[in-house]
Amino acid sequence: MIKNDRQFKYTKNRLNEFRKDLRAIQKKYSFDKSRLRLLSRGYIEHIAQLKAEIADYEKMKTLPLPRKLRANNPAEISQQLVRLRIAKGITQAQLAARMGCKQSDISRMERTDYKGYSYQLLEKVANILGVDLELIFIVLSEKSKESDYTTLTIAQKYYFWAFNKNIKAISDATDSKHGETTIIFKSKSEGGLTYA
After folding, report:
1. Does this model's pTM top 0.70?
2. What is the secondary structure of the chain as a DSSP string?
3. CATH number of the domain to which 190 belongs
4. What is the pLDDT of residues 59-96, one digit of tens each?
5. Are 78 and 117 part of one and the same domain?
6. Distance between CA 56 and CA 117 in Å, rounded?
7. Residue 108: is its pLDDT beyond 80?
């Protein structure tokens, strides 16, 4: 995922380099179709990936700002933060200045492997970006074969944080067949936390 204009420019340059290399391979091995297919496959796949990333970044810059920072699992949070920041038209450094932290802190939050989010931090980012916060996590029981320990741990952490802060829970329902619990967090402007 491209997160800033510097990465965008770098990705476009890499795309041009891969296209140039592919043309050279096509020219060199035009007489041997099987070898050409074998040698060009990786280039073609990488070119397609870079084109998709470039198109996604250009789309993020032109789409209107979403109304919500919405994530269905912890892994989506960083992607949504990037999308919102880009749609808002601000850099990591500008967001850091508004939050009172360093640009490197924003960069770390936007990494896909980052797991140090707190509800307060995400709510602060959402407020600065002018959007509502909505986090929806599906927690699978430990008995379930599809259980993801990381998701379970993070979602439980948020649940207990909310519970300890005495935030009103609107509904409570568990799918006993699959052992799933959905935890839905909404910003205060939407009525606080719910878990279903």
Report:
1. no
2. ---SHHHHHHHHHHHHHHHHHHHHHHHHTTT-HHHHHHHHHHHHHHHHHHHHHHHHHHHHHHSPPPSEEEESSHHHHHHHHHHHHHHHT--HHHHHHHHTS-HHHHHHHTSTT-----HHHHHHHHHHHT-EEEEEEEEEPTTSTT--HHHHHHHHHHHHHHHHTTPPP-----BTTTTEEEEEEE-GGGTSEEE-
3. 1.10.260.40
4. 988 888 777 777 777 678 888 888 889 988 899 999 99
5. yes
6. 25
7. yes
Dist. CA 189–CA 120, nearest whole Å = 14
Instruction: Name the packing angle between helices 149-164 and 74-88 (round to 10°).
Output: 70
Domain identity same for 52 and 81: no
Phi/psi region, residue 16 (left: phi>0; alpha: psi -120 to 50; beta: rest), is: alpha
Of 62, 79, 104, which residue sits at a domain end?
62
Gap between the Cα atoms of 152 and 180, Å rounded: 10
Distance between CA atoms of residues 72 and 134, nearest Å:
9
